[in-house]
Amino acid sequence: MTKSPAIRTPDARFTGLPGFPFEPRYIELIDRRLGTLRMHYVDEGAAEAPIVLMLHGEPTWSYLYRKIIPRVTAGGYRAVAPDYIGFGRSDKPADRASYTYQNHVDWMVEFVDRLGLRRCTLLLQDWGGPIGLRLLAERPQRFDAVLLANTLLPNCEPPPRGIEDWPGPIVGPWAQSTAHASDFDIGLVMRSVCATIDSAVVAAYEAPFPDASYKAGVLEFPSMIPLREDSPGIDENRRTWQFLERFTRPVVTAFSVADPATKPWQSVFRERIPGAHGEPHVEIENAGHFVQEDGTEPLSAALMALLDRQYRA
After folding, report:
1. Which domains are seen in the chain, by residue range?
2. Residue 242, CA distances (Å) to 143, 155, 201, 274 in order
3. What residue ranges of the chain have pLDDT lower than 70?
4. Nearest-angstrom CA–CA distance, 283 and 254
5. What does the alpha-carbon distance between residue 295 and residue 289 come to, in Å, rounded to a whole number?
6. Residue 198 to residues 149, 205, 290, Cα–Cα distance (Å)
7. pLDDT of res. 32
8. Looking at the annotation, which residues are catalytic?
9. pLDDT number for residue 215
10. Do residues 135 and 104 make contact, with C-beta atoms less than 8 angstroms apart?
11. What is the dihedral of CA 122, 124, 128, 129, to 10 degrees?
C-alpha cells in the first residue's frame, strides 16, 4: 500500500483533555490518490446495541460530543463519533486540494461500510449535515432515524425549497474567509460562536493542530460550502434532497434560536422531509452554533426521546 502523504498529531497532544476519557480507536481507509489514511473514532457502549453516529463540523472533532456520549451509553445505546480526515486524531493530508466535499462523503461511506454499522441514528451538526445526509442517501438501509442540529444542506433553490438570499450575510463571508489564509485561529472561532466556553475546553479543540501545517483541512472546509448553482456538490445535494423528499423514517430538528447561520434551514427540513412531519421538534434557547456545548441537556433529551421511541416503544 502507498504510504499516506499526511501528518499525524502526536498522541501527547491528547493527554488529559477535560471530559474526554474515551479510548481511541482507528480504522485505515484506502484512498485511491492519497493511499492509506488512518481515521480516529470513539466507540462506546454495547457492541450489539442500536447506534448513534455523531458527525461533527468545522473546526471541531469528536471532542464536541464528549458530554453526549455518556448519556447515550447510559441509556443502553452505542455511541460512535469519528474524526473526519484532517481533524482530531485522524490523519491530516498536508495539501488543501485533498479536502473536497466528495472526498469527505466517500471517506464516511467507507467508514460506515468497513465497521458494518447498522441500526443507526444520525446526529448531525454543522458540516455533519451535508456529509451525513449524503451518507444517508448512499446507505439508507443502515439508518433508522436522524436528529439535525444547527446544520444545513445547500441547494441554491428559492424558498420554500431553500432559504432566502442564499448564501446570506454570514455564510457567504465565512465561506470566503480562509480561501487565501495560511493559518486559522480555532480558539477565536470557538469563543465567537459558543454562548460560554471554558479556556481548557478551547485548548482541547486546539489540541489536534500544533501549528498551521496541521490545518489544511480546517482551512479548506469553509471554501467547500456550495455557494452557487455551479459549485461542486450542488447537483449531489439536490439529488439528496430528492431522496429526503421520500424519506419517511423519523427526522427530528433541534436548532438553537440564536444561530442565524443555520436557523432558517430548520423549517426547510421540517417541511420537505416526510419523516419530519409530526415529530417533536425542538428550539433551544441560550445556545450558540455548537449546541453540543451550550445546549447539552435539551439536545440530549431530544436524542434520547427519539432513540426510545424507535427502540423501546
Report:
1. 6-311 (3.40.50.1820)
2. 17, 11, 39, 11
3. 1-4
4. 6
5. 10
6. 22, 11, 14
7. 87
8. 126, 259, 289
9. 98
10. no
11. 100
